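Service request form, structural biology core

Requester: graduate student, group of Dr. S.
Request type: structure prediction, single chain
Budget code: on file
Notes: please return the result as structure tokens.

Sequence provided:
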Amino acid sequence: MYIEPFQLKELPFRLSPDPQFLYLSKQHARAKAYMESTIWFADGFVVITGEIGAGKTTLIESFLREIPQDVVVAQINQTQVSAVDFLQSLLAQFGFAPFKMKKSELLATLNNFLIEQYAAGRRVLLVVDEAQNLSQRVLEEIRLLSGVETTKEKVLRIILAGQPELSAKLDAPELVQLNQRVRLRFHLAALSLMETAEYVRHRLEVAGAGAREIFAPDTFAQIYRYTGGVPRLINTLCDTAMMSAFTADRDQVGVADIASAVAELQWVEYAARPHRSSPAGAPRMRGGREPAQPPLARLRVAAGGHTLQELPLLPGRIIVGRTPDNDLQIESRFISRHHCQITTTNHASIIEDLNSTNGLYVRSQRVHRHYLRDGDVVLIGRHELRYSDERAPRGHGNLDDTLPGIAAPGHDEATLAGEDVPLEIPTILPDSQS
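Core staff response, request fulfilled:
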């Protein structure tokens, strides 16, 4: 193999999911932050979708390596099963021997286990990969399990990951109740040209290349041309190209090696391949990948009376925080790593605290979740988020398009503001999150 000639410690482009090689692009970092939110919130229910080879499984493995010790995890990858098979697999993950139990016994055992774990101070997380294969009956069982709760909170956190068909399946009218339980939903798109180059260099560096440029700079455009930025396709093409360079006794992969690999794989350009469209409601990615549309609202970041930056709000969710993986980055030690999220639909925008150190304040009241109105100013650390609504003038009584799990004003105002606690603004502390 080419490991020794290229002076590497291991193969850099294996197809098996290895968390050690995970490249956190901005959107991969967002997806991972959404997974982490299942730990932050008692009613955490996250759906992550992405095309085949987008890196969902590697992302899950990386996330599971880092979860706290007080989290009990069940990870299910075999999803073409019946409802009973699924419940049995779930209990087996928790250490039971459930294969002779009837369905009623399975459900009772699961309910008792979840309550016992809550009483012992442990959190329970269910992670289902390849969830697009789950039948409607199994998804209904997951909905029922997500409703198990104590008098204070729900006791099961859930992550569903799968191909874009999962999003379409969840949007079916028969699963509207399950859809309403979902707190966060994100579509993992392919890498950009720049990210593709960074991805290749990252994997080579992890494999032992150090700062050596094993791939010539002019190869990356060709790699992107034939892979479309899909990580699994990048791995396949780069591995084949390195073999081509090795057999030609070259110590650097050039454009000729990429062409040789493409011919061996019998690939056409990625743009010429048939593709499935992204699911409706997938967040718009920056860089012009999605068609432009008029913003529904705008968010202006201000400090000291001066506007520092402005962000148009489209349907979807944005994360605001201190680190570069956020959609809106505010570099301040008084802002948490992931401070808050803003969710926008055709009718409403809602801001929600992500367990930040210094919280959110609207009109001198600390809020956990707040329905934004035109002209609202949200204090975040020592910065202000000024919200302006650019939708057509309308009353706020009909907000049927608000997010699953978040009530609209007029329906249940307590759901939106029930956790808002009137407080005097405290002394702002430097954020302690890493």
